[in-house]
What does this fold into?
Amino acid sequence: MSDRRPRASLRVPWWGRLESRVITALVLLGTLCVGASAYIVALTVEYFDGIVDAAVARNDEVVDIAAPLYDGFVDARKQAYRARLSAMARELELLDRARPPDGEGETAARLRSMLTREPDLVELTLRAPERPTIGVERRGAFPEEEGAWIWVPVEDADASAVSLREGEGVARYELTAVFALDPGMDRRYQSLGRLKREAGLVVVGDDVVTRDALERAIYRAIGAASALVLTIAFIAGFVLARATTRKVSTLSEVMRQIAAGDLGARVPELGSDELGQLGGAFNRMLDELAAAQKKVSYLQRVGAWQEMARRLAHEIKNPLTPIQLAVQQLRDKDPRVSDEFSRLLATSVEIVEDEVDALRRMVTSFSQFSRVPEVRLEPVAVSRVIDEFERAYGHLTDRESDVLEVLPPDPKLEIDGDRQLLKQCLVNFVENAVLSGQEAARGPVHVRVSALRGDDPNVVELRVEDNGPGIAPERRELVFEPYESTRKQGTGLGLAIAKKIILDHGGEIAVGESELGGAAILVRLRLRATA
It folds into this structure.
């Protein structure tokens, strides 16, 4: 009794499965990539922080230098405005001394002339206690669409005092002015202030944010992107691992079935990738293994039948001669005392001799089966085998209506084979077809012999077809077993011998359906490499 026990199915823990390893590897790879990206981003932010800090410092320095210059410029302009106002006051006094004005209208005209002459002068006004104010202005000359003009009023009691004659006396007036300062000056000054305030800030669209807020937003974005990448890596790893490990699990399961003795198990279609190709190769290996096992099993059975046939032939052949001699002596020693006894003796002797002849034929068949010649391979053209078979066999029968049709093969088809044994196989096939057709009594027998390239260009297919009764599908494998025959008078050894010869050639033999309506014997042999 064997002490081997069936092994239990191995259950791999989840952390040891290929699926878990693939998912873990992809997640670790994604984490490594995200970490490397975050480190590079941190270095980049730190580098640009240094650059931005240096730029902000330079910007502050420039603003700090430019602001006092602007203030000094404005003060200088105001001083210039005061000087101009004083000059216009002195001009009015000189005009008054040269020719006193004839009423307030002429004084206003002189002010308007000064106003027109000065391009940045907006308003001039003369004021005196208990006297009407005389003023002119032109604010409309400075359009608002060009910018918000800055009105600079100038009032200096000492510099702008004007003495004008009135009749016999002199009246004291105060001249005031409003000047228009270029709005571009204010914009530039405001720009300096904005630059000062926005130093270190970042403009994003219409919003202004601090660098710290921007960095936090960047890190949040990196964190969200990292989470997304890891999620995608996990999902992709899971899908990829499932798709891959499912195929590996299928292969493993089929291997376990094969190991358990189920040699008919096969790997299902797994696609066109490497695992799919591996599954296809594994199936082909199993098919070849099954074919080889089937061939070995058949040859073992045939060998056992040959040994039994040899022993039976030996055991049966030895007593046949004494039996036949004894029967002949009985016939020769007939005392002829009675006609009835003589007839009985003659009949009995004839029966025994017929059975002895039948046993001799059986012994001859056993001997032929037990001594199947060894195959001797040599290069041979298929056309030569067919031609020699046709010359040796001749016509099928003595009946003219029976037809043997031999299709000439391609003369370039060449195999490594035993010409005599292959010819013997063709003879066996044709004889079986003829005898089966005659037993079926379907009319003239028609047998066709042909040799063509098969679906595989490296294989030649010999076909022997007939119009007989055919062979049922369930018996197409049994007909090659020894002592199995579809004919009433068949010994069942011809096809068994032929199959052994074909297998010794490394070929294949099968039974199919013929285009003529009967059976077809199909023999596949591999062509020579040079063919």
Notes: The two ends are 53 Å apart (CA to CA). The mean pLDDT is 78.
